[in-house]
Every structure is written in structure tokens, then in C-alpha cells.
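Q: Sequence in, structure out?
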Amino acid sequence: MIDTPKPTKTELAILNVMWRISPATVRQIHEELCTKTRTSYTTTLKMLQVMFQKKLVDRDSAQKAHIYTPAFSKQETQAQIIDDLKTRLFGGSISSLVMQALGSTHKASNEEIDQIRDFLKNLEK
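A: Exactly. Output:
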């Protein structure tokens, strides 16, 4: 597995926007981010600069307005975070992680349970 940098909660909020609309300028990212949270343009800009230094995002500086894209896909980032969580919190046990997720206070819908069953059936093949 690729050892991707670990994004913070704020960085994940920005990445979630970027996975939907990238490539994008700081202004585009900021406007989309402001639909869910209150933040200033300069904060968004600073966060993107930090994320660029951490190699979470790539930046094209060829134009006046820099264009940002995520350095890793959503799936790569999810896999890295889950693997880290599994190792640090569940002692490496995937079954403990899954059982905790399924038994949490936010119960899975019937549709989600059906998707999980289908996924497990495919794993058994």
C-alpha cells in the first residue's frame, strides 16, 4: 500500500470538495467549502499551501490562478486511513473494526446490509 500522508479533519473536508470538483482554483474550492462550513478565503488558501507541502495535493502554477488537484484518489486515502485505524485502534483486527462499525449507534440501512452481504459473497468466491 502507498504510504500517503495523513490528512487532518480540515484537510479531509477540503479533499472531499476536491474529489468532486477538481481540478479547481482556490476560489472554486473555497466557494464549495463554504456551503458546509464557515471559513475565510485566506484560511482555505493557507490550508491548500500546507496540503501542497505535505504532498496531499498537486498544484499547477502555470496560470495566474493556481490549479489544485488531489495527489491521491479518495479510495487510496480511505484505504490508508482505515489501515491506520485498524492497526492503531483495533490491534490489526479487521473483524473488530467491521463489527464496531456495524454495531455503532448509526445502524446500517437494509440497503447497506445487502451491499455488505454481496461484497462478502464476492470475497468468498
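DSSP finds six helices and three strands in the chain.
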